[in-house]
Specification:
Layout: E1 8-12, H1 17-28, E2 32-37, H2 44-52, E3 57-61, H3 67-80, E4 84-89, H4 104-132, E5 135-140, H5 152-172, E6 177-184, H6 190-199, H7 203-212, H8 222-232, E7 244-247
Parallel strand pairs: 1-2, 1-4, 2-3, 4-5, 5-6, 6-7
């Protein structure tokens, strides 16, 4: 992909972890990348990494759960990088607790970022994709969509994203737009570190224990997810839509 026909990609929650890895990979693939996160200054390392590798990137502050903020962020991307035809809905938070301890605010916060955020961002970019007759929407689900103790909110949101993905694939396919979801297993990030802290174990022990339970005998890295996102965003993936791929080091249902 040369500079004259480079696609513009938006990655939410891209300041760190999986989002940052996906943004860097799409930059390496030749895309101009809008690095979106709640804190614009936190995006600087990702933007700098893409720029240092010869790519183009832009940091944009956004609250994906806020309608006006999501729309304004997309408009800024259009003005500074070009119309986006790749969207990676990665922004996410955890507010883990057992059901009887989970507050309504913890439920609403997780639903807001994951589900409302993916909806608002997808709605804001879909016109640019349909106008171009080409688009890729990639939603980040999770193996937690299959159920996970202490994550009633997160599991529900991640399962909801799978239904959202399949519906977008049906609605937008005729316009040359695909929608797919990636469901990571254990990925070594700040978020899984926070889970270890919640459980009261060291991150190193948590990783070692988790690796023993995974068929490939290791935990995942953000780059593992970025590789899958790169495929879904590619020309070659044009006949793959409405799919949920579990990138988890072993089979999941």
């Amino acid at each position: 992909m040369n500079a004259d026909n480079a696609r513009t990609a938006i990655v939410t929650g891209a300041a760190r972890g999986i989002g940052a890895a996906v943004a860097r990979r799409l930059g390496a693939d030749g895309c101009a990348v809008a690095v979106l996160d709640l804190d614009e200054s936190a995006c600087a390392p990702t933007v700098d990494a893409i720029g240092s590798a010869g790519g183009r990137a832009l940091a944009v502050a956004v609250d994906v759960a806020d309608e006006a903020s999501a729309q304004a962020a997309v408009e800024r991307v259009v003005g500074e990088l070009g119309a986006p035809t790749i969207l990676v809905n990665n922004a996410g938070i955890i507010r883990d607790n057992l059901l009887f301890k989970m507050s309504a605010d913890d439920w609403d916060a997780v639903m807001g970022v994951h589900l409302r955020g993916a909806f608002l961002m997808s709605r804001a970019v879909q016109q640019h994709m349909t106008d171009a007759g080409w688009g890729r929407i990639i939603n980040l689900s999770s193996t937690s969509a299959l159920g996970n103790r202490g994550q009633a909110n997160y599991s529900t949101a991640k399962a909801g994203l799978q239904g959202f993905t399949k519906t977008l694939a049906i609605e937008l396919g005729r316009f040359g737009v695909t929608a797919n979801a990636i469901a990571p297993g254990f990925i070594q990030t700040d978020m899984t570190r926070a889970t270890a802290e919640r459980l009261g174990v060291s991150f190193e022990d948590f990783i070692a224990f988790s690796a023993k339970e995974i068929p490939v005998q290791r935990v995942g890295q953000p780059e593992d997810i970025a590789a899958m996102a790169s495929f879904f965003a590619s020309e070659e993936a044009g006949f793959v839509s409405g799919q949920v791929i579990y990138v988890a080091g072993g089979p999941r249902a």
